[in-house]
Amino acid sequence: MILHVPAVLAPAEVVEFRRRLAQADWVDGRITAGHQSALAKYNLQLPQSDSVAKELGAAVLTALDRHSFFFAAALPRHIFPPLFNRYSVGHGFRNHIDNAIRYDTSVQPPRPVRTDLSVTLFLSSPEDYDGGELVIESSWGLHKVKLPAGDLVLYPATSVHRVETVTRGERLASFFWLQSMIRDAGERQILLELDQAIRKLSQDRPDHPATIELTGVYHNLLKRWAQV
To answer: What is the reported pLDDT for 206?
Structure first.
């Protein structure tokens, strides 16, 4: 399941993020890469300990908290602290698969986070750079993703994916991983579809008794499948 989640950040928030990131101290992006990924990765990144990264990462989490569609789609149990990367001309990230487990060192002892879903939050507008598409491989073929600033994409962390080489401008993004309460992707999809159907029914027929019945089905399935 590859999902576009729109308007996670408002335009004014994107402007402020970009202002802060323009003044940040960027380092070689391979600092967070495993052995296989380090051979394919060419970009810049903010260290996880960087004060700007921490502040903006907290702002991303706050934005996610208010976005109901993100929560319905991901059903997050643990979110790895958001990181930030920068692709300038000539930078790219060849085909790779994300590590299965990440250790969140913002808590002690470090918390293992199973990477069920990968997330990219775009901070540059598509017209500001050429190349830089996130390309995700799936059983349905290749998916090229280049979203408006402030939007994010959710996709399986098991996917082979890459970032195409930037040929003009600069691509800024936040990226992170999450462990879902629902480990199975098929079960997550069923719950999301049921959630969206309940929301639509609530809007179209707010007094319809089926709304309560379907809400009960949703929560019973969540209880059956959730790992908390």
So the answer is: 87
What is the domain range of residue 110? 3-180
User: Do 219 and 158 belong to one domain?
Assistant: no
Regarding whether 146 and 89 lie in a shared domain, the answer is yes
If 0-12 CB within 10 Å is exposed, 13-18 middle and 19+ buried, where does residue 139 land? Answer: exposed
Over range 166-171, report the average pLDDT: 98
155 band by pLDDT with thresholds 50, 70 and 90: very high
Among candidate residues 134, 105, 104, 107, the one with its CA nearest the CA of residue 119: 134
The answer to whether the beta carbons of residues 180 and 116 sit under 8 Å apart is: yes
Query: Are 78 and 36 in a shared domain?
Result: yes
Q: CB–CB of 152/8 below 8 Å?
A: yes
Q: What is the identity of the amino acid at 55?
A: E
Strands (DSSP E) contained in the chain are 3-5, 27-28, 41-42, 44-45, 76-79, 83-87, 92-96, 101-104, 111-114, 117-122, 129-130, 134-138, 141-145, 152-156, 161-163, 168-169, 171-180
Total domains in the chain come to: 2
The pTM (predicted TM-score) of the whole model is 0.93
If asked whether residues 27 and 57 sit together in one domain, one would say yes
SS3 call for 188: helix
- Residue 119's pLDDT is what? 98
Query: CB neighbours (10 Å) of residue 158?
Result: 15
Residues 103, 198 share a domain: no
The pLDDT tens digits for 77-107 are: 999 999 999 999 999 999 999 999 999 999 9
